[in-house]
Amino acid sequence: MFAAVDIGASGGRVIAGWLADGKINTEVVHRFGNGPQQTDRGLRWDIRGLYDEVIAGLRLLAERFPAVVSIGIDTWAVDYGLLDADGELIEDPHCYRDPRTGDAVRSVHDRIDPAELYQITGLQYLSFNTIYQLVAEQDCPEWRRAAKIVMLPDLLGYWLTGDLGTDVTNASSTALLDASTRDWSPRLLQLIGIDADMLPPIQPAGTVRGRISPEVIKQTGLPDDVVLTSIGSHDTASAVAAVPATEPGFAYISSGTWSLVGLEIAEPILTEDSRRANFTNEGGVDGRIRYLRNEGGLWLLQESLRQWKLDGVDHDLGRLLAAAAELPAGGPTVDVGAEEFIAPGGMPERIAAACRRDGQPVPTTAAEFTRCVLDSLALAYGRTLVEAASLSGQEIERVHVVGGGSQNALLCRLTAEATGREVIAGPVEATALGNLLVQARTHGAISGALEDLRALVAASSELTTYSPQRQDADTR
Ligand code: LFR
């Protein structure tokens, strides 16, 4: 029995998982909300509140599944907390959507040419990559007290165990990791003035991080030998590990707040063409490379819904999607990955402004905005996969959509049309499954390569296929 703590930008869950009859079974024991908090010190995560939810979830887990042997934690990437010399968190971590890195980006690129930075890290340029956030932080008083930089899943893990460590999947999102050696880059650390001992050691996914502390055992009622296992702690890495592909030739879209669109490859592609196309080489489970582009995601729709609610209209998503599906194809589209959509607030107006600026029809109803976001996402997916195939030389025969967006039938149908490929949707909880399966393998409940884990996910999940030619879907 294993437990996944899986926290995304809009919500978290504690999920129990166990193997029986060649399948993985899961049960969600606790769900909780999440979202960046606007404070007078910028946009931040309430990480202590999230930790309290994790503890509440582990308490429920201990009651329901007393035989749990291991816990794994994943969250979104790039963000971190700073610990002082006594190991205390200095302040709530910044959210990557805080637009604080403008000067820091310029400052880093003055010190190292972006082309050279890419040759070392292989990382897509995103204004919120950890390297830029850290340089922005160096101007704040809190930086002077900072002794350790700890990625968010590792911070939660540190509070559970007292042990500090990280894994390559999340470390690769910082732009401080050398994509070729898969270790911290001494050159980049020196460039931005960070001592190597501020960063924790990198452990491969599938290493025991440490035992859950006696204090947490007392608080939760967990068995006293339960451990924290290092998994693909970047949520996207765990999701990609659980893509239910049974044959090569697949692409994936991990679809949620963001859409991570790409392929799995064996060695990083660090060419100038790849950099110009803004593809990333993030570290995957078992040394694989996640060659993908981070496109905007359902955030544009989530934020629009939030704005309409603030304005007094609480739309039902199901109804909105049904109305959007009735609208004709060929409506306006926006660049979902653009910097202008990263920060929260006023999303429908920003979408309308982008359409107006480009001389396109401007959406007015909520259904039109919804359709515009989904058409834009599908268009971005289609383009990204054409480029991924050409840059990697890998053929794409089918596209797996995992995560929350796999439940959005309209988006899946539009994706099949835009990519001209069969789309296989599901599972929704791929991230938690990837987290659980790596733990299960570490603790001997299963064995095999990533392909075997994926076959197990395929055998355990209900998947829906959307064909590019047909308007309907098959569920198996
Ligand atoms: C998805 C994700 C993406 C990362 C973004 C910010 O949840 O982890 O992979 O680019 O969030 O961390």
Poorly predicted tracts of residues: none
**Which CATH C-level class of the largest domain is it?**
Alpha Beta
Measured between the Cα atoms of the first and last residue, the distance is 27 Å
Q: Give me the side-by-side strand order of the main sheet.
A: 17-18-16-15-19-20-21-22
Alpha plus pi helix count? 17
Q: How many domains, in number, for the residues?
A: 2
- Would you tell me the structural class of the helices and strands? alpha+beta
* CATH fold node name of the largest domain: Nucleotidyltransferase, domain 5
**Cα-atom radius of gyration:** 21 Å
Q: How much strand? A: 15-25%
CATH architecture label of the largest domain: 2-Layer Sandwich
- In helices, the fraction of residues equals 25-40%
Present as ligands are:
beta-L-fructofuranose
Largest sheet, if any? 8 strands, mixed
Tell the overall outline: globular
Mean pLDDT comes to: 97
In CATH terms, the superfamily of the largest domain is: ATPase, nucleotide binding domain
Number of extended strands: 22
Question: What's the short version?
Answer:
This protein is an alpha+beta fold and 476 residues long. The protein has helices spanning 47-64, 102-111, 114-121, 130-137, 152-161, 168-171, 186-191, 214-220, 235-241, 272-276, 299-310, 317-326, 347-357, 366-392, 409-419, 430-442, 450-460; strands at residues 2-7, 11-20, 23-33, 37-39, 42-44, 70-75, 80-83, 148-151, 166-167, 177-178, 183-184, 202-203, 207-211, 227-230, 250-255, 258-265, 280-283, 289-296, 398-402, 422-425, 464-466, 473-475.
